[in-house]
Amino acid sequence: MTGRSVAILGGGIMGSALALFLARRGASPVIFEQMPEIMAGASRWNEGKIHLGYMYSADASLDTARRVIAGGLAFVPLVEDLIETSLSGLMTEGDDVFLCHATSVVPPDLMAQRLDAVAALVRAHPGGGGHGAARRFGMAELARLTGSPAIVAGFHVPERSVQTRAVADLLRAAVEADGRIRLCCGRRVVGVEQGARWRVLTPEGAEGPFDCVVNALWQGRLPVDVSAGLPLPADWSQRYRLAVFLRTRRHVDAPGAVIAAGPFGDIKNYNGRDFYLSWYPAGLQHESRDLDPQWTPPAGGGFDAQVASDSLAALEAFLPQVAELRAEAESIIVAGGWVYAAASGSLADPAATIHRRADFGITRRGSYVSVDTGKYSTAPWLAQRLAAEIA
């Protein structure tokens, strides 16, 4: 495949990983990214959960778990191969804690059954044999963690999360150091057109030609797919979400916990000083089924401070350790980005398709490829497979 030109639309984790895998196969990748640099959007500002399917206990079919397990198990070795260094020190050390809310879309006994079923799927998967089972809290253990009567059950769940800001910096450095990859940052893609080969359309003009185009966008992906002749998916939603990235002055012993399952939130403790905190109702700023929503968050520190305050206050009602995080905060950043899903509906609705996220992957029209990453942790696995298929 030496010299074959591939336009990659979007410089998030999917586009960056794909460019590195393609370059190693002798291609000439070009990344188009509308932000000033790659790895600056949703791939930088998220919790970094390495999904093995436990989060989707509302999916009775377990199809979502079956779909994400392979990517979750492959995430660490693939990323370490791409950045040529270990992720040690950049990941949460202990099991996640899942706390079942009284208004969860999945009641506690059913959640226990689903978590056990997902654990069995993980252990049966190649490479998953070393993973343990989910373990339910005793009542005394649950009471020590949270005094909230709204939390009706708790589980230790063998999942980890990675510090996405650090991974973003390492992936960006790997891409920038690879002389075979060309970056076109600050260029928003509005469409593509096909002649003998593909051209990429931006407000500044057309770029190309390219032998292959891969649409790895989240924001703006659907109009580009339409311009390439792909049909719209049956269902989709585009959400702009914000979260809190907090660093403390000293080590704080706070759990990595998910309040589930529904429109709740979570905490990630990466190393005792760096934390991710999200409360879904406070962080969800915009939701749309427009083809290309252009909403942007209000500018100014007052807006960020309100999102942070609302998120921390909501989490503190369930986990008193959040008060210590607030008191010891050295810095607080509120950030996020657009999230695309081939699903829709409210997380408070157990019938909403957003609880079932198995419909992601690769769609083609000739040498035009649209890739729905699905989850952050499935992106490197999909990128490796797609690079092999393009080759």
From TrEMBL:
InterPro entries assigned: FAD-dep_OxRdtase (IPR006076), FAD/NAD-bd_sf (IPR036188)
Keywords: Membrane, Oxidoreductase, Transmembrane, Transmembrane helix
Keyword Disulfide bond assigned: no
GO molecular function: oxidoreductase activity
FAD dependent oxidoreductase domain sequence ranges: 6-324
Spans through the membrane: 6-23
UniProt name for this protein: FAD dependent oxidoreductase domain-containing protein
